[in-house]
Design a protein that fits this description.
about 230 residues, 5-stranded parallel sheet, elongated
C-alpha cells in the first residue's frame, strides 16, 4: 500500500462513521467522510479516491443506485457496501449495481479494514509499481525514492506529493489538487503547506531541478532542466 491510498467513507450513523474512519486512519489510509450522497458526490468530484465505503441506505437515497449511475458514466473506483440488508437477493443487487464487495452489519471493523486494503490494492495495481522520470525512480511498494541511484529519505507528505506529480508527468497540478489528494479534508486550502513540502522536496532532490513552478497554478514535474 502506498502513502497515497485515499478512502471515502459514506455513512449517516455518526458513531459508526467515526469508528470506521478512525480505524482506517490508524492503518495509514487518508480518509474523507460524508453523511449523505450529496456530500459524497461533492467530495468525489473534487478528488481521486482508491476506494469508497458506502452505507447502502442513506438519508437522500440508495447508494447502490448512485454507484450504478456513476458506473454507467465510466467511474471505476472500487466500492465496498455496508448494509444491514443481508439476504442473497440484496447482496446480488449490490454487485449488479457496481459494488466490488459487500459487508453485512454488524461487522468487525478489522475485517472491514482488511477488505478496504484489498480494494485499494486493486485500484493501485492499475499503476506501474515503479515510476520513472528522468533519473528519478519511485517504488510505491517499497516506499523508496532514488535520484541517480542514490536512496533519498522522504517524509510521508513529501513521498505523497512526489508520487502524485510522477503519475502526471509534464502536467500542471494545482495546489488544491495536491491538498485534496495528499492531505485530509481538514487542511485549509489557503495554507502554504504544499509550498513548504515542495520546497523541502526540491532540496532533497537537488539539481538539476525536476519540480517546476507553474505561476498562478501550482507545480509540474519536468525533465532535468534548470527550474523556475
Amino acid at each position: 500500500m502506498t502513502a497515497t491510498a485515499r478512502v471515502l467513507v459514506v455513512e449517516d450513523n455518526e458513531d459508526l462513521r467515526v469508528a470506521v474512519t478512525t480505524e482506517l486512519a490508524a492503518h495509514g489510509f487518508r480518509v474523507d467522510e460524508a453523511g449523505d450522497l450529496a456530500t459524497a458526490d461533492a467530495v468525489l468530484t473534487g478528488a481521486h479516491h482508491d476506494c469508497v465505503v458506502f452505507d447502502r441506505m442513506l438519508p437522500d437515497g440508495d447508494a447502490a443506485t448512485y454507484v450504478y449511475e456513476r458506473r454507467q458514466r465510466g467511474w471505476a473506483v472500487p466500492v465496498l457496501f455496508l448494509t444491514a440488508r443481508d439476504t442473497v437477493a440484496d447482496r446480488v443487487a449490490g454487485f449488479e449495481h457496481g459494488g466490488d464487495d459487500y459487508l453485512v452489519k454488524p461487522f468487525a471493523v478489522a475485517e472491514m479494514t482488511a477488505r478496504v486494503l484489498v480494494l485499494c490494492r486493486r485500484s493501485q495495481d492499475r499503476r506501474p509499481p515503479v515510476l520513472h522520470h528522468a533519473d528519478l525512480e519511485l517504488d510505491s511498494a517499497r516506499r523508496q525514492v532514488r535520484r541517480a541511484g542514490v536512496l533519498l529519505t522522504l517524509s510521508d507528505k513529501e513521498f505523497a506529493v512526489l508520487e502524485y506529480l510522477m503519475v502526471r508527468p509534464e502536467q500542471a497540478v494545482t495546489r488544491t489538487e495536491l491538498i485534496e489528494h495528499c492531505w485530509d479534508t481538514s487542511t485549509d486550502p489557503m495554507s502554504n503547506v504544499v509550498d513548504v513540502v515542495v520546497r523541502r522536496l526540491r532540496a532533497k532532490l537537488r539539481e538539476p531541478e525536476l519540480i517546476h513552478t507553474v505561476r498562478g497554478v501550482g507545480y509540474r514535474l519536468d525533465g532535468g532542466r534548470s527550474g523556475s
